[in-house]
């Protein structure tokens, strides 16, 4: 088991929800509105919570989302953009959206490695290492299979802070901004074999796999 003993979403997470942002553009470039906060700022919220933890600070006590245009809103939007790790991060989401969940043999000539095995073999070890070294771990959850780039926004980001291995299963506890103050949100990877692997999200969200999102801390002072 790996656990950040001094981290709990109910204590360290933002106390407002990702589903109550105003119907406002995320930002404007040359006066042109980009994005819509009402669709969610999950990556920015996950990064902001990681920033607070890295700085040894607790989040603001408010349960109301910062208003559009405020310093806190702008900071979370900036961290959202940072979490996209453009252009490679967006490309990684799209690549995983176009992969099968389980390995697929093409005419028995080559094997396409699916999102399940990529998660189990390549990403879970990174999650364990990051938590074991005392850091929460941002995860990009791939929740949809699609060839349409417009579906990129249907994926999700969370922040892992604890894991437990039990035989062929690994359970990861996460701060999920869609469930603020909930210390019991988990993703369980049932991995007896890549061909039978299942992902069970305690909130009911469909998860096809996940990967570690590159992260560097920022000063969270604008949140206050």
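^ structure tokens above, recovered residues below v
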């Amino acid at each position: 088991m790996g656990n950040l003993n001094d981290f709990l979403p109910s204590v360290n997470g933002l106390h407002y929800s990702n589903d109550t942002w105003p119907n406002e553009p995320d930002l404007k470039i040359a006066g042109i509105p980009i994005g819509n906060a009402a669709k969610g700022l999950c990556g920015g919220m996950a990064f902001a919570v990681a920033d607070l933890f890295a700085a040894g600070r607790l989040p603001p006590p408010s349960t109301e989302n910062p208003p559009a245009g405020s310093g806190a809103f702008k900071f979370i939007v900036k961290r959202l953009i940072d979490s996209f790790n453009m252009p490679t991060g967006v490309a990684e989401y799209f690549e995983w959206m176009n992969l099968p969940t389980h390995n697929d043999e093409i005419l028995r000539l080559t094997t396409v490695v699916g999102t399940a095995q990529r998660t189990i073999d390549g990403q879970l070890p990174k999650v364990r290492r990051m938590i074991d070294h005392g850091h929460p771990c941002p995860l990009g959850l791939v929740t949809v299979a699609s060839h349409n780039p417009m579906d990129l926004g249907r994926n999700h980001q969370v922040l892992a802070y604890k894991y437990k291995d039990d035989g062929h299963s690994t359970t990861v506890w996460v701060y999920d901004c869609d469930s603020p103050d909930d210390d019991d949100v988990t993703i369980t990877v049932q991995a007896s074999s890549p061909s039978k692997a299942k992902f069970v999200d305690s909130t009911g969200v469909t998860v096809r796999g996940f990967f570690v999102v590159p992260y560097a801390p920022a000063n969270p002072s604008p949140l206050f």
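Helices lie at 9-12, 42-54, 71-84, 88-97, 115-132.
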